[in-house]
Amino acid sequence: MRTVSRRQTTMYFDPAAEPAAVIAPGERVVVQTADSLCGLVKQSAPAGFGIDDVVRRLGGACPVTGPLYVTGAEPGGVLSVHIERVTPVPRAGQGWTGVFQGFGALTHERYSIQQPVEPVTALVDYDSEAALLDLGSRVARIPLHPFVGTIGVAPPLERRMSFSQSPEYLGDVDLPGVTAGATLVLPVHVPGALLALGDAHAAQGDGEITGAAIEIEADVELSCEPAGAEQAGFAGLPQLNTTAAIGSIAAMQGNDLTDCARAAYRDLLERLTRFYGLPLRAAYMLLGQAGKLRVGNMIDPYYSVLASIDRSFLA
């Protein structure tokens, strides 16, 4: 099985990028990912950072490994990305988390009426089962759930920073569902799709409200399958599907959480009517009673939502 090294990282989703690897449909590869700040925190911790300072020092954030050119992926189609496993590197070691100055769901550097929480970064030990978060008076044992925080394809025209979001390419969405056993379905804008991914997390709460999960390096085993949009049941937004549920992702940088939730549910509604044979009103009622929402980001201007429905309702 081929490996794409974490030394081949970039801070962009770029339609003009040279591929780091060319892979065949269905071929399994291992993609090594860097952590979200390129190892900066492990070199400097304990310390505090402003997010703008970090971006200036690194030229971005959330580096992605790649891109991968997938043979057969063509503009107008879609790319199904099957995630087989996400393995922390090392399997037991240290990740990091923290609080950034002026960045987070509960603080804002321009609109706050009081001083924000003092920034800090901290190393977090983890093993194969849990991460150990030091709370001062005690240690919280947080179950390990490794997943990919940032993943996307090349946008149609201009390059975009990996530390960004769009329905066109996806990006930094921090949804815990992007993990082993899941399939992402993404639109293709350039030949080969140019898939790139990184920013793995060992664990994270919904919304990633401090701006940092338990950030780690990881090995991600995956395979890709190009398909036509209609054949794949693609309605417009990126999808996250499993054997248990189907879901639609709305990650629309600059739009608020409510707009993202509406957009994700609207895309899922269209999928139920176009591809699962449900009348509009019936599909609307089903989502009203059994639909689920998962929040990835909720830090202005980054918001991402996964709307899903269990497949048992669609049999």
Radius of gyration: 19 Å
User: How many helices in DSSP terms?
Assistant: 4
Tell me, briefly, the overall form.
globular
Parts with pLDDT < 50 across at least 5 consecutive residues: none
Structural class: mainly beta
Biggest sheet, in brief?
Answer: 8 strands, mixed
Order of helical and strand elements: EEEEEHHEEEEEEEEEEEEEEEEHHEE
The proportion of residues forming helix, as a percent range, comes to 10-25%
First and last CA, distance: 36 Å
Strand content: 35-45%
Could you tell me the mean pLDDT? 94
Counting DSSP E segments of at least 2 residues, the number of strands comes to: 23
Layout of secondary structure:
Elements: E1 2-4, E2 9-10, E3 12-13, E4 21-23, E5 29-33, H1 40-44, H2 51-58, E6 64-70, E7 78-89, E8 93-99, E9 120-126, E10 130-134, E11 139-143, E12 147-152, E13 160-161, E14 165-166, E15 170-172, E16 183-187, E17 195-203, E18 214-215, E19 217-227, E20 239-241, E21 245-251, H3 257-275, H4 280-290, E22 292-299, E23 302-310
Parallel strand pairs: 1-5, 4-6
Antiparallel strand pairs: 2-6, 3-13, 5-19, 6-17, 7-16, 7-19, 8-9, 9-10, 10-11, 12-15, 12-17, 14-15, 16-20, 17-18, 21-23, 22-23
Name a few traits of the molecule.
23 strands; mainly beta; 315 residues; globular; 40% strand
Plain-language structure description:
The protein has 315 residues and is mainly β. The protein has four helices and 23 strands. Strands 2, 4, 6, 12, 14, 15, 17 and 18 form an eight-stranded mixed sheet that branches. Strands 1-5-19-7-16-20 form a six-stranded mixed sheet, with no helix packed on it. The mean pLDDT is 94.
